[in-house]
Amino acid sequence: MADNYLEKKMEAYLAPSQTTRKTKTSLKQLLRKNRSHRGYDPKVVVRKEHLLDIVSVATLIPQACNQQHLRFKLITREQAPQLLPMLKFGAALPELHLPFPGTAPEAFIIICGQSETKLTYMDLGIAAQSMLLRATEMGLNGICIGAFSKEQLMEAFDLKYPPLLVLAIGKGIEDIRLTTIRSDEDHRYYRQDGIHYVPKVCLDDLLL
Ligand SMILES: Cc1cc2nc3c(=O)[nH]c(=O)nc-3n(C[C@H](O)[C@H](O)[C@H](O)COP(=O)(O)O)c2cc1C
To answer: Are residues 169 and 198 in the same domain?
Structure first.
């Protein structure tokens, strides 16, 4: 009986659990899915709890000198219409005036800095990408928006520290595809037949 017990234990230990099988998404798959969306499904409401979950990754990430100078302001659908016109989407496609009417994001995370040094900006990149990966893992999408007036946002939302980056969060509705380019080719994203293409420099050309 004892042998049987151990055998069963070992079998259970070696067999991949149901949860592992179900949720196994590789980091590369997540990175591929994590595209910058400029159009969102208005039927999918992003609540404060979702934003809190996304921001909670900030308690897990590396930060230079462990300084943790970033602070986060959560914006949900009540305040979103006030923030939206202060942000610039899709500078490379000005003729489209993105986001299209009825597809604007209704949730945002404003990332502010208690300092604005080179290290703060490094921390900002780590935090922003980690949060977008978490949003992707949750079945949502997002985009970093750096084009805004710091002064305007600070005043409008009574921010204690300067805003460094805004993340829009929602359920993306765009068909976004990556293409591979050489480093001397055009890097600009473009749209063709409703599909958004994002060129990425091939690995060979990234190596020194
Ligand atoms: C720091 C940063 C700032 C950005 N600011 C803007 C912005 O102001 N407006 C915008 O439409 N996209 C912005 N983007 C999104 C980029 O345009 C996008 O990452 C790029 O086109 C590549 O697409 P991908 O994220 O799907 O790979 C920003 C991205 C980063 C990382």
So the answer is: no
